[in-house]
Amino acid sequence: MSTNRPTPTSDFAIENLREVEASTSAPEGLDARLARDLLGSEHLGVSYFRYEPGVRTPFGHSHAQQEEAYVVVGGSGRVRLDEEIVELRQWDVIRVAPHVVRAFEGGPAGLELIAIGADRIEGEGGRTIADFWDA
After folding, report:
1. Residue 104, C-beta contacts closer than 8 angstroms, at least 6 positions apart
2. How many Å apart are CA 101 and CA 71, to the nearest integer?
3. Which of 3, 47, 67, 88 is the most exposed place for a label (fewest CB within 10 A)?
């Protein structure tokens, strides 16, 4: 098997999520790497998030139409889904309906997630709720 990466085409693309440039807008303690644009995908978004121990998303977010799924690939933590807080462990998969407000928190060893989303609806950037964990 070759280790050379093929040149991206309109039919496929390969990116290493850990090598995607980190988002500069992520809060301290959160490593966010968004690959949708690099993959050239019209209908699918894939991102990598790593929360340091005890670090929380500083806001909750939801969407009007986009359903999302998250896969815990390392560590553990918690997710707040509207008013419910759920413990997470490695290999849990969380499907979240568009209207549900969600936010994550890293556990004692941190939390690593892969996020998968559907089409970005034009003009629908989602809704954020500041201080969601404190609400």
Report:
1. 49, 51, 56, 57, 70, 77, 78, 79, 80, 88, 111, 113
2. 17
3. 3
133: left (phi over 0), alpha (psi -120 to 50) or beta: alpha
- Write out the two tokens for 13: 């693309």
> What is the rounded CA–CA span in Å between residue 52 and residue 131?
18
Total-model pTM = 0.82
Q: Give the position of tokens 């969380």.
A: 94
Q: Tens of pLDDT along 33-78? A: 887 777 777 778 888 999 999 999 889 989 888 889 999 999 999 9
